[in-house]
């Protein structure tokens, strides 16, 4: 096996990891559709979907763990004679099994997309408060929708909204991750860009995809076509 073959295999694993993430988003959309259908018997189906997304989270975690180990060891043996590559497989297996044994299933509930699933279903279960909305002044309602759908960084409508678990504010994924990365390179903290927010250290670990809000934006745009 050559180094190029190892890199090709790693690329395939990363692609598979992305596919698993996409499938997890689809499971969340199915769960939200189920809730919004107002079917009386959906609790068992939601439990099944949650079990499926936890299994997907475990698979994604294992792929990520395996890929990281291979990348690390591959960088090590690349500095050694070619014959060192023959020991790569055994070393990967040994480190992977040790790492896998240390992982907890309870930690899967902290997976970004598992949290997004639970929050998406929870948001779909909440009533829209229609009577209250009808009593609001139309201009105020329009302003609230604009603020909710607009990224405070780009000032344009979000495509992939991310929710900050600390302050509950939303940002578009590309904009917020780019800003966090830029500040990290400067060795500086990044303050939440929402005016008046006291969160002075926005980090990627505190961000989760808000698929419920994303779908609201998509539905709103579809109705305006």
UniProtKB/TrEMBL annotation:
Pfam families with a match to the protein in the record: zf-Nse (PF11789)
Locations listed in the record: Nucleus
Keyword Metal-binding: yes
Gene Ontology biological process terms from the UniProt entry: double-strand break repair via homologous recombination; protein sumoylation
PANTHER family cross-referenced by the UniProt entry: E3 SUMO-PROTEIN LIGASE NSE2 (PTHR21330)
Name the UniProt record assigns to this protein: E3 SUMO-protein ligase NSE2
Any GO CC annotation of this UniProt entry: nucleus
UniProt superkingdom: Eukaryota
Gene Ontology terms for molecular function: SUMO ligase activity; zinc ion binding
Family: Belongs to the NSE2 family.
Residue stretches making up the SP-RING-type domain: 136-225
Pathway given in the UniProt record: Protein modification; protein sumoylation
Keyword Nucleus belongs to the record: yes
Alphabetical UniProt keywords: Metal-binding, Nucleus, Transferase, Ubl conjugation pathway, Zinc, Zinc-finger
PROSITE patterns: ZF_SP_RING
Primary localization class, coarse: nucleus
